[in-house]
Amino acid sequence: MKKILTAALLLVWGAGLVFSQEAQIRELYGTVEVKQPDASAWTPASSGQALKPGTHISTGFKSGAVIMINGSALTVRALTRLSLEELVQSAGSGKAEINLRAGRVRADVNPPPAGGSVSFVVRSPSATASVRGTVFEFDGLRLRVDEGRVHIAGSDGSGTNVGAGQTAHISAETGRAAGAGESAREELTPPMPAGMDSPHAPAAAAAASEMKTGFTWN
Length: 218
What we know:
Layout: H1 2-16, E1 19-20, E2 23-29, E3 32-35, E4 43-44, E5 50-51, E6 56-59, E7 64-69, E8 72-76, E9 81-90, E10 93-102, E11 105-108, E12 117-123, E13 127-131, E14 135-138, E15 142-147, E16 149-154, E17 159-163, E18 166-169, E19 181-182, H2 201-210
Parallel strand pairs: 10-12
Antiparallel strand pairs: 1-9, 2-5, 2-7, 3-4, 3-6, 6-9, 7-8, 8-11, 9-10, 11-14, 12-13, 13-16, 14-15, 15-18, 16-17, 18-19
């Protein structure tokens, strides 16, 4: 009986080490809006705001935000729309999954402050970029790695590993992952303007139409 009770206590204690975490907006500029999972409308974001799993984020023209996720920084570029699908922390590890619907993000992935490993995944309709400690930039089809190593997988099941100083892309027609190549300045075009279902959608769309086709890595 004592052994059963001890095992039950250990099970409860172990389960308590795995919990959902919140992200936090560290800084922002321009028009940045959020829609929390329990809300029906978009609202202006604020610096220091906590973001629960399931939160949607939209940035307007000449806007952006930096979101901290358990020691890792996600930089959300202008005209981007994404959602925080999964934010989980456990003893010695952390996991974050981002759904990139449009636009571009930069991820500076670091181990949790208390140490351990981290899994950071950014998904788009066409590709999935997954890492364990690195720095990369991703627009849903094209990937550039600044530090570490990233695995990018196409919707057809193909994949390739991309090292520091390299880029790779997914074919929009076939969904196939192309081989990694040396990093270069590339023209990138977001699939659609972000925030189309936000209160500022007309303004964002008008601003996007005035932009030059594509944009370059910073």
